[in-house]
Amino acid sequence: MLRYETMMNKSDDGSEILTILIDSARPEDAAGIISVLKQTLPNTYPDAKAGTTDKDRLTTVYSRDQSAAQAKLARDIEANNVNSLWLVARTRDSLIVGYCYALKQSIINKLQVLCVLPEYQGVGVGSRLTTQALAWLGQDKDIALEVVCDNLVFIRFYEKFGFKIAGESDNQNKKPNSRPPLTRYLMIKPAG
Length: 192
What we know:
Layout (H helix, E strand, L loop, with lengths): L2 E7 L7 E8 L5 H15 L9 H9 L3 H14 L4 E8 L4 E8 L5 E8 L8 H13 L5 E6 L3 H8 L4 E5 L15 E6 L3
Parallel strand pairs: 5-6
Antiparallel strand pairs: 1-2, 2-3, 3-4, 4-5, 6-8, 7-8
Helix pairs in contact: 1-2
């Protein structure tokens, strides 16, 4: 089990100290993870190129069967696959404020998802989740992630960890009758 406790200043003047615990996710964290996803989605997926709005993204998430999604996520976490890592960031009172999902694969490793509640962004929560996930993934293979092309804040964030844009992702959603496709960059952090 990974455990990392850190204290961060939540305010510029240092008047509010925040204690965050980075920990392996547990099946009972599924509801909190889904809550973070819903709250971060509008800021994560702006895509002017595809004409996609915040409302389009929220409609997709809210239209899913919530109990089924939560049960599936809990099963995925409980499976404790040696090739996948679910991390959560929680406050001392157990509020989940962020999460990360990383995946080890045969050719290239992936940082699949990183989400942090807006009010906890900019204070180090995402950096600590990313650092823990990258340490777990190791340096023996390239590490890939996808980011929406219009999200310059996230692109700059990942560049601080050594990721570079490798081109547009070919993993676009192109199913008939689906929401507009997201234009994404593939970003790679080279091995070593």
